[in-house]
Structures are given as structure tokens and as C-alpha cells.
Amino acid sequence: MATIVDGFEGELKELREVFNSGKTREASWRRSQLQGILSLFKERESDIMEALNQDLGKHNVEAYRDEIGIVIKSANYALGNLKKWMSSKRAKLPLASFPSSAKLVPEPLGVVLIISSWNFPFGLSFEPTIGAIAAGNAVILKPSELAPTCSSVLANTIRDYLDNSAIKVVEGGHHVGEYLLRHKFDKIFFTGGARVGEIVMTAAAKFLTPVTLELGGKCPALVDFISSSWDKKIAIKRIIWGKYGVCGGQACIGIDYILTQKKFAPTLVELLQKYIKKSFGDNPMYSHSMTRIINKKHFTRLKGLLEEPGVKSSIVYGGKSDEENLFIEPTILVDPPLDSSIMTEEIFGPLLPIITVERIEDSVEFIRARPKPLAIYGFTSNEKLQKKMISETSSGSITFNDSIVQYAVDTLPFGGVGGSGFGRYHGKYSFENFSHQKAVMMRGYLIDFGFRYPPWNNKKLQLLKSGLRYDYITLVFVKLGLKGKA
């Protein structure tokens, strides 16, 4: 800790000096850093894959799909759009301000702190970093200590490929995070759980620092009756992927639980079992296609969810675990108690409760009665039900007939609402997240309206009323003395 304290003050000072020099504002610097990220992922792909496998047991295909490929895509998108994003935008002005012009000029915020999560240690580190660099900021990145190998690779590769005077990595446990939060930053971007999110907000409030929180919550999937055998097959595969196929269920936008009609539940369970076996085999642990639980603490927490009264008896598939290998097989539960922890806390693991309702429309009220989730998934072709879900629920996003894919779309913002977080990023939204849109207005001296200045009289009041309504005809009449009241 002493080393961190002694060294960090100087590093923070250097970042401030570099930012104040204007270096990071240059388009050439921003491009060079984004290109550095591309080079990093091209040349160190095997190191990244090995680290993800060591910390999380991620297969190379999953590692590329969810982290390496996503970052490359985002960096390329930022490079392709950087000139447009950096350009000022003309703003419309009312006729009353003539002669004048105005524009919005995006400017970087300064030195920003990014605190990333362990479940996607590279993706959730670089995705916001790309936005911060594109916007022209200096960056301090604090990766999660729960994925230590990935944290080390992050620190070493960033040191080799990016500008160390403006982009720094600080490694360490929660005490390091707490130490960082005692300092003033121009923006804090945090990905993680709500409990730590509260700590981040509290620390930021001392300096009035703006914060983006990417949290999570219990993301539901409403599954309507599906008659077509093809649609049914694709829907089930997408549900299984959305629950078990992305970091073993340890994903903030993964499906947390399913809502379906009671009469459709047996068919749904049967199909889920069938395609779980097709995806992961009879012994999922040896398929190497499913991520393991991050550590013993989380493993014990998940086991505890299954052992609560009334929960264990609701298991209809799976439930087996291997503590030595930190692995829990895909598990399905039907109607566990609604007041149990598995239905009140974010699961963040390969446990899938199915809650049955009499009418599928009842699912909407079920969702509304609970905290706002990061994402809602609706597997239905019923347009009336889709409209009901859109208009009567609130969430960071809503996706129909698929899961998680919205995260990978650069033109859609990603972020939460309410308890699932606030602030948005990805694509242009990442650039905006780390920018301030400065309003710039220029006026000429040719025309001036004397009624805006004292001394006051009733005629000036009438002129002001007309002017602020943009009622120029009445304004002229009052000015000429042709109208007594406005």
C-alpha cells in the first residue's frame, strides 16, 4: 500500500500535466492510441486467451467472441467515425438572436477513472477506454483483482502499446480502489455490483465528479408459447446461450430468470434440457465450452442459493457441482419461492429459475413490480404483447426473440436505468459519455433590442412577452405603438 500511495500522486500529477498540455486533444494522438489497441489485440491474442482461460476457464472461441473480437470491432468503429464525432455541430437559433450563430463543440473531460469488472476483464476495460481515448481524455484504469492473470496482462500490454504518460493501469485489491476514490477525477466509470456502486457514488459526491454506473440486476426473459418447430429450436438455443453460454451465466445482461405460461412450462423445460445436452454434452464441465465460477466465495454463494428451503425441491434439471474445479452445471428450477434469495438477488451464475403465470400477459405486471433490470428479453411474435412490454416496463434495453446481441451493436446505447445503473456507452455513446458538449454562441452588433435593458416600463414588459413567445408580429405592433397589450 505504501508503494501505491507514494507513486500514485506523481502519476496523477503527470496525467494532469499531459492533459493540460493539449496532447490528448489532438486527433493524431487519439488515432494512434486506438491503433495501438488494435495492434495489442492482434499481437497479444494468445496471451489474452491464455489469461482468460486461467482466470475464468473461458474457451478460446468464447474469449474471442465476447472480448477480443468485441474490442477490435469497437476500436475500428471509433477510428472510422472519429473525425465526425470530433466535429462541432451547428445549432439552430431563433430569429430574435439575429445576427448570430452557434455550435456545439465536444471537449474532453480531463483525467478519467475506469474501474472494470472481472467477468469480461478485457472487454469491460477496453470498451470504456476506447470511448475515453476517442474523446481525448487521460485515463487511469483499475482492473478487477478477482481476475489476477488478466489484470497483469492488461497492465503489461497497455504499458507496451499505449502512451504511458496519458494512459495508466493501477492494479490491486479493494483497498487500492478505495485509495483511488479519495482523489479528484473528472469522470468515474464503474462496472460492477450495486454495493460497490454506492461506494463509488459516495466518494464521487465529495468532488462533484460525474459518474457512470454499469450495474446489472435480475434480467427476465418472457417466453411466450411458440408453435413453429423452427422458431422454437432457435429461441431455445438463444435462451440457453443467453443464460449459460456467456461467462457461465456470470454476465450482467444475461438472462436471470424466465417467465412463461404454466401450460407451456413442461414443454419449455423439456426443450431446454434437450439443447443443454446438445450444447454442453452429458458432462458440461468436460466440454470446456462453459466458463467456471470465478472463485470459491461466489461458488459458495451460488450453492447457498440452491440450498434454501423450498428452492432445492424446485430443481428439475442439473444442480450438480464440483467445488475443486469451481464448476456448477446448468441448472433449471421451476417455481422456487418468490421470497427466496434466488428470486430476490441477482443470480450471476448458471442457475435458471422458471416462474409460471396463468396468462403470459401477467408477466408484464410481474416485471413491473420489481426493480428495473438492465435488460428485458421477450420471446414472442405477439405484436400486442411486444407493445405492452415496451410501454409498460422500464429497463436499460429490451430485445425481442434473442438475447445479449444488443450489447454488440455499436449504434445502440448500452446502459441501465434505476437500480441497474445510469449513463450509457458503446459507439458514439462512449465518445459522448467522456465528452462535454460545449455551447458556443457568436453575436454581431448590428441589431440590439433595447427592451432587454433597464430602466423598466410597461411597454418593455409587453415587448419581452412577445419576444420570448417568438411572436414577432405582435412585437412589431407593440414597438410601433399599434398594440397596447401583449
Structure overview:
With 486 residues, this protein is α/β, with parallel strands linked by helices. It is 43% helix and 16% strand. Helix 14 links the parallel strand 15 (375-379) and strand 16.
Salient structural properties:
single chain, 486 residues, alpha/beta, 7-stranded mixed sheet, 6-stranded mixed sheet, 17 helices, 18 strands
Topology overview:
Layout: H1 2-20, H2 27-43, H3 45-56, H4 60-86, E1 89-90, E2 100-108, E3 111-115, H5 123-134, E4 138-142, H6 148-161, E5 167-169, H7 174-180, E6 187-191, H8 194-207, E7 211-214, E8 220-223, H9 229-244, E9 257-261, H10 265-280, H11 296-306, E10 315-317, E11 321-322, E12 327-328, E13 331-334, H12 341-344, E14 351-357, H13 362-368, E15 375-379, H14 383-392, E16 397-400, E17 421-422, H15 428-433, E18 435-443, H16 458-468, H17 472-479
Parallel strand pairs: 3-4, 3-6, 4-5, 6-7, 8-9, 8-15, 9-14, 13-14, 15-16
Antiparallel strand pairs: 1-2, 2-18, 7-17, 10-13, 11-12
Helix pairs in contact: 2-4, 2-5, 2-6, 3-4, 3-6, 4-5, 9-10, 16-17
**End-to-end separation:** 69 Å
* Low confidence ranges: none
Helical content stands at: 40-55%
User: In oligomeric terms, what are we looking at?
Assistant: single chain
